[in-house]
Write a structure and sequence with these properties.
The protein is of the alpha/beta class and 247 residues long. It has 9 helices and 7 strands. Strands 3-2-1-4-5-7-6 form a 7-stranded mixed sheet, with helices on both faces.
C-alpha cells in the first residue's frame, strides 16, 4: 500500500479510529480514583482527541506519544487553541520501546493502538511501567461473537489474526499481573461520528482525484470495504475499553 496515498486519506481526520469524548470520559469515570497530579502517558495518541479530554479532566500534564509527526503537530495546535498547551506534552517515540523507568506511571492510556504490539505483547511491555496500584485504560478491537460469518472471519484473519474476545483479553490481562476493574463496548456512534463519518467525507472529496496520487484508488477501495463490513456485521465485533489495575 502506498504510504503517500494512505496518509492523503487519513491525515488530518479528527480521530485515527473509533472513539468519542464521551467514551473517554466514561472510561475515566469508571477507573477512578487516581492519585493527585498523576503521571499519565497516552500511547499511540494519534491526533489526540482523547488527550485533550484527559488534559481537561485531570490536574496534570498528559504525555502524548506517537511516531507520526503530523499527528503530534495536529494535537499541539488543538491544545493551543483550547489553552491546554501547558497540560499536553508530545513525544515522538516508539511506544513498543519506551525508555521510561519502571514503576513511574500512574495512568497508561491507549485508544485503539495496542494492536500494533498485539494485546498480550503490549500488556507485557507496558505493565512494568506502572506504579503499585497504577492503572491502564485501553480500547481494543474485540470479537463480540464466538461464531463470526465466513466473510468476517476471513477479513479479520488477514487484518488482525490474534484479535481476542472480552473473556480471552481479560484473562491475558490477569496473566500479565493486572486486575480487571471494568469493561465496556464502544457504541456505534463512536464508529460513525468519531471515525467513519469524517472518513467517508474525506473519501468523497478525494474520489475525483485518484489519478493524482499513485495507489489512492486502492486505499479508498479498502476503506469502502472496511466500512461496508462494519455496516453488515457491527454487532459481531467492536472496540472494547478495558480498565485495568496493577495487581
Amino acid at each position: 500500500m502506498s504510504a503517500e496515498a494512505f496518509w492523503r486519506v487519513y491525515d488530518g481526520l479528527p480521530r485515527a479510529g473509533p472513539g468519542s469524548d464521551a467514551c473517554t470520559r466514561e472510561a475515566l469515570r469508571r477507573l477512578s480514583p487516581l492519585p493527585p497530579s498523576p503521571r499519565v502517558l497516552d500511547l499511540g495518541c494519534g491526533p489526540g482527541k482523547q488527550t485533550l479530554v484527559l488534559a481537561r479532566a485531570l490536574d496534570t500534564v498528559i504525555t502524548a506519544v506517537d511516531l507520526h509527526a503530523p499527528f503530534l503537530r495536529q494535537l499541539e495546535a488543538a491544545a493551543a487553541a483550547e489553552g491546554l498547551e501547558h497540560r499536553v506534552h508530545t513525544r515522538s517515540a516508539d511506544f513498543g520501546a519506551l525508555t521510561d523507568a519502571p514503576g513511574t506511571v500512574d495512568l497508561l492510556w491507549s485508544e485503539g493502538a495496542i494492536y500494533h504490539l498485539g494485546w498480550a505483547g503490549g500488556l507485557a511491555r507496558w505493565r512494568p511501567l506502572l506504579r503499585d496500584g497504577g492503572a491502564m485504560a485501553l480500547s481494543e478491537c474485540t470479537w463480540l461473537t464466538d461464531a463470526p460469518t465466513a466473510e468476517l472471519a476471513a477479513f479479520w484473519r488477514e487484518a488482525y489474526p490474534t484479535m481476542g474476545t472480552v473473556a480471552s483479553n481479560c484473562e491475558a490481562a490477569r496473566r500479565a499481573g493486572l486486575s480487571v476493574v471494568d469493561t465496556f463496548v464502544l457504541p456505534p456512534e463512536a464508529w460513525w461520528d468519531g471515525h467513519y463519518g469524517p472518513l467517508e467525507a474525506r473519501m468523497e472529496a478525494l474520489a475525483p482525484r485518484t489519478s493524482e496520487v499513485p495507489g489512492l484508488a486502492a486505499v479508498l477501495d479498502e476503506a469502502r470495504k472496511e466500512i461496508a463490513l462494519y455496516r453488515r456485521h457491527g454487532d459481531a465485533y467492536g472496540y472494547v475499553f478495558y480498565l485495568l489495575r496493577a495487581a
